[in-house]
Amino acid sequence: MDLFKNEGKIFVISGPSGSGKSTIANALLEEPDTVFSISMTTRKIREGEVDGVNYYFVTDEEYDRTVAEGGFLEHAEIYNHKYGTPKKPALENLKKGLNVILEIEMQGALQVKESYPDAVLIFVLPPSLKILRERIENRGTDSKEEIDKRMAATVKELDYLKDYDYYIVNDIKEVAVETVKNIMRIEKQKVKNLPANFIEEYIKE
Amino acid sequence: MDLFKNEGKIFVISGPSGSGKSTIANALLEEPDTVFSISMTTRKIREGEVDGVNYYFVTDEEYDRTVAEGGFLEHAEIYNHKYGTPKKPALENLKKGLNVILEIEMQGALQVKESYPDAVLIFVLPPSLKILRERIENRGTDSKEEIDKRMAATVKELDYLKDYDYYIVNDIKEVAVETVKNIMRIEKQKVKNLPANFIEEYIKE
Fold first, then answer.
1. Closest CA to B205 of A190, A5, A95, A126
2. Which of B123, B199, B205 faces A191 most closely, judged by CB atoms?
3. Share of chain A above pLDDT 70, in %
């Protein structure tokens, strides 16, 4: 019903490394009128990644220029690399009625909430820290030392949970995905999401 | 997971006469750990209604005594009859982790929100006023004069929509029911709904 149609919403998905946040974020694109925000980063492209799809891979100079122009919705430095969410395409998509998915870490998520309070922040939790460690170990890509570092980082990241709107326990992937999709659907049912002239139009109809 | 288990929530369902709010409210009992709040009323029992199931049918004296004792979460007079939601059983059920469904009109809903801000207010809308009128006419229980009065009341009731958390368009009943069930599920995923000691316990696990 067009009467209920309004601007899109920003959904921010964060979670510790190994929480499965990327899988969940990607699955959200199955929802109608939903697009991904593509971040800029100065980190090197990894195998399997595509420039302009996973990230815009840019030089430090290009990144710094965007910061100077106020062109980021959020930006942060993590593990010596810089990441940022370009503001313009995100706001344009919202105007078109599209949901915009941001998969970013916690510092960035809070910056988004500050600059755009209507953003919905979702924190993906592994069922337990023990299971998270097992998952990272099974991936077989990180040394024991790196895993220890990641686990310590994860414990610190939990401090950010209190600033998020929703938490999702990623135990069974399909359930976690469906729950986040439901958050997206239900956020649309909020009265504050209705167009300003809704009642006026509704009575006329 | 017990770690995520917390108090129950109050869900308030309101809507114009003929919006189908009762059908929706009743269907919510299919959700786990969900109970109905049974209101007290001074109005006469109708055919098919059961005392202690649909309402506690009480005298004016019993009702007034409960008001004097501060025993209502909300109470109001509608169409010359008095209605109230007993406070004690509702709060006891929340403590037990049960969701409590209240099917009440708008004045009462706002009283609940005031006395219990965590209550989630859901407004059931008919697809349009035209369809609402047709539905009431097809019911064949009301005179034209009564229907006109109800329609005028409905337009006034829309003023309360802005104070509600969610709206539901009751076009296809099954869809409306599923949407409200999703609201109930998703409200549980709010970070503010987690136990205060959650992170502490989560790290230990």
1. A126
2. B123
3. 99
